[in-house]
Amino acid sequence: HKFNTFLKIHAPCFRLDPAIPQKRVSSKQRRLSLEDYRATYLQVPKIINRKPVFVSETVRDELDRVVRYLGGRGMSASGLIENLVRLHLDAYRDDIEQWRKL
Q1: pTM
Q2: pLDDT band at 74, cuts 50/70/90?
Q3: Residue 71 sits in which domain range?
Q4: Sign (positive or negative) of CA dihedral 33, 35, 36, 41
Q5: Can you list the alpha helix ranges (DSSP code H) found in the chain?
Q6: Is the torsion defined by CA of 56, 61, 64, 70 positive or negative?
Q7: What does the pLDDT look like over 16-66, one tens digit per residue?
Q8: Upper half-sphere CA count for residue 2 (Cβ side, 13 Å)
Q9: Which residue of 38, 48, 49, 77 could cross-link 42, Cys pair, CB 3.0 to 4.6 Å?
Q10: What is the rounded distance in angstroms from the CA atom of residue 8 to the CA atom of residue 6?
Q11: Residue 74 backbone class (left: φ over 0; alpha: ψ -120 to 50; beta: rest)
């Protein structure tokens, strides 16, 4: 379910054929996409037993900007990273387990 939401939100980013023209996105569609994005990535997660994770300054600056402009009260770059990684691990859990056995 979460991965399907991810694909729905990001599918336009994964165009395989550059010869196919992109459709215009209406402001209503853009608002709905923003709502989906916020619901998926910008919910404040409960993080227990925090551990440090290092990212480049450039990535951190971009994460801070996304959270500042689009996130709500209490949201942080760490929370965004937590949500992104949880979704990634949920989406690829079975594959990772199979690859581990290779």
Answers
A1: 0.70
A2: very high
A3: 2-100
A4: positive
A5: 2-10, 27-41, 57-70, 77-100
A6: negative
A7: 455 666 667 777 777 779 999 999 999 999 999 999 999 999 999 999 999
A8: 14
A9: 38
A10: 5
A11: left
